[in-house]
Amino acid sequence: MLFEILTIIAIAIVLPELFIVSALVVLPDDKFPIDKNANYIFNAIHSSMRQWGSSLNHNGMSFFPAHMPAGTELYHGTGTPDPVEVMEWLAFEPEHALGFAWKIRDEPAVNSSDDHHSQSMKWLLDGDLTRVLMLQTLDTASDPFSKRLHDNLQHPLRHTGPPPKMETGWLHTYVMKRDLRLIYIDGQSAAKSSKGTLDSQDYVFDIAVKESPWLDRCRALKMCKIAKEEWNGHIDGFVRMEHGFELILCDFKSNTDMIRVERAMPTLQRDQADITMAKFWFLKAITARYHGIGTKRILLDYSRMVTAFAYAIDLFSHRTDLPRLKDISKDDRAQILADLAESIIHDDYEPSARWTDWQAVADMIVARYSDALHELAYSPFYKSKKHIEVEINLLLRPFIDHDHRNTTLEIQRCASHFMPSNYTSSTASAAVSSITDKICSTLCVTAEQQSLDEARRNLQDLVEYLAWTSWKECRGCRRDELCFTAICMCSSKFTCPPLV
Predict the structure, then answer these.
(1) What is the CB neighbour count within 10 angstroms for residue 326?
(2) Across-strand partners of 63?
(3) Are 243 and 237 in contact (CB under 8 A)?
(4) Phi and psi based region of residue 260 (left: phi greater than 0; alpha: psi -120 to 50; beta: remaining)
(5) What backbone phi and psi angles, to 5 degrees, belong to 282?
(6) E strands of 299-441, at which residues?
(7) How many CA atoms lie within 13 A of 456 on its CB side?
(8) pTM of the prediction?
(9) 231 class by beta-carbon count within 10 Å (0-12 exposed, 13-18 middle, 19+ buried)
(10) Vertex 364, ends 309 and 488: CA angle to 5°?
(11) Residue 241 belongs to what H/E stretch?
């Protein structure tokens, strides 16, 4: 059977129907106009917890306080059937966790509770970096061998002996014993890349070993240490995304019950057709979450989002179209972290019906205008300015009083159409309001223009500014096809591990 994978190469690189928000939040800088980066903030809201948009805009610059309800089931793949008790990772999808359900044959399985540091050092000194990378066993950036490993990782891996023989491990299913308070880090924040996917962690949380993709345990332990010691335990873990969403849970023993453990079914010993099928269904499971993780496994507090786009800092100083945090000052990084702490250390953290779901608002705006704007800007169907004017007037018709035409009032009615009647001021509300005003004012101005070229130029400028991820979606894939964009990025200096 022929499996066709449609590949889209996106400039940059999350899921459920997340709902959220409330509480008054002081904007980071009263003098900095949110309008300047409103498009980036709007897109961060729209793509939050969604695999598709977060893969395209992979350098996340935003943090969202999040809530996971008690009773939520998540998955952990490992080389041992023993329950995890300390800090470890959980996957939102079992197929994601199964990718980690393996062990090296004829060697004892390890988990994060074991002291297997000396064994990893032996492998390192023997030049066997493959095993070290697979187990990621360096727990502290202060280890004397960390720098050597970091330096070696800057070059292609050199493995002189035969590759280690692998065998399947176990899939654990855990249920959350209580409601969890989390931070969602947007973009492909779990992607092992030096392209900027890790910036929001390495530079805001001041990770000692920066841009060392495979020392992820150091990164996770540092963030959990901050949550415990500096935030007084207000945060239980961190949600990130790579090829699927994951939760870094800082304390398994206090927060989970293991309700099931199963030996993973092997795939590597099968023929090539079976391996291809297994990989295809793995990708199928991941791409099924392009537009949401389903149900309310995670709720985001959009009104308390903290985003680097809301500060008077230059995120594009390295002259690419991808934002980076590596070039901003230490003071700016510290301010972002301080504002994040302020957004989470409060008593009214529980989800509330009063929360404004700004992602739902963004969804309605995109649904109404996405196809229409793109067609008006680029479709050859519109051969005259009159054709464009008719279409725009149909879009604006609900906001026009034909007996008393007033462009200012029409823009106001149009811009406020999807805005909630009662909401608190926040970065999210300011960005969404700015985007609707931009769309409506552009439509009104374009409808009055005389030149077809000028009208098209206005609309194309608007589409380029909005940069909605809906315009890069595949349309009409068959059951044996899937639309696939760059996920789980790896630096060109690294080799991505194979699927097990």
Answers:
(1) 16
(2) 185, 306
(3) no
(4) beta
(5) -60, -50
(6) 299-300, 306-307
(7) 15
(8) 0.82
(9) middle
(10) 50
(11) strand 237-242
